[in-house]
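Before drawing any conclusions, I looked closely at one protein, both as residues and as discrete backbone shape codes, quoted below without any editing:
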Amino acid sequence: MSRLLESAKELRRKADDCAKLVSLDMTEICVYNPLSYAFGAFEEYVTRYGAASKRVIFLGMNPGPWGMAQTGIPFGEVAAVRDWLKIQHNAGRPAVVHPKYPVEGFLCKRSEVSGKRLWGLFASRFESAEMFFKEHFVMNYCPLLFIEVHASGARNLTPDKLPAKLKESLFEACDSHLRDAVDVFSQGSELVVVGVGDFAAKRARLALRDANVRVEKILHPSPASPASNRDWAGVVTRRLAELGVTLN
């Protein structure tokens, strides 16, 4: 567990360096790093739920503006983090915040739909968060949220849309952290990394191509995907069963 936190601190440092480069090279991009301003919540999450080996890691892409950007927890929809994970750690805020995407922590009234769906599925299958985390863990590949500012406002920019020269060092750091997590959680047992969406699965396959793990993919719960708005929980539950990844 301490190794995972040390790895996260190293990722935080490298992500901060990358954020500075993005700010210099792309002045129209605003970058949030929850591993910096909300590390206390993340540390509590890892300390409480990251002990022992795991059977499955669910890997997301990067923080959502109304999820991890607010709470510091992957897919961190406020109600799910507060009521199911039982974490409510006061966090800071980024040095530069775009008014369209304020950081209000647990006072945020917006719901992160992706997080609500993901944690809602797990809550429906397990009696408690402790039961879920006995063999499962949830993490993000990239710790940074990118806000692209334009004339008519701003929008969430996914990491794959960054210029190649900026992605290279960032993805190298993210790959390293993912490999550390796999080393910590596998401990000699078989481990399945489930990419939540295409991007996460692709990056996991690249980062873990030499590791003794199985990488699979499930549909991302984002409401931006029409397929995700048609019984996402049922579709994903059936897909996981096909993969031999049972939620019990």
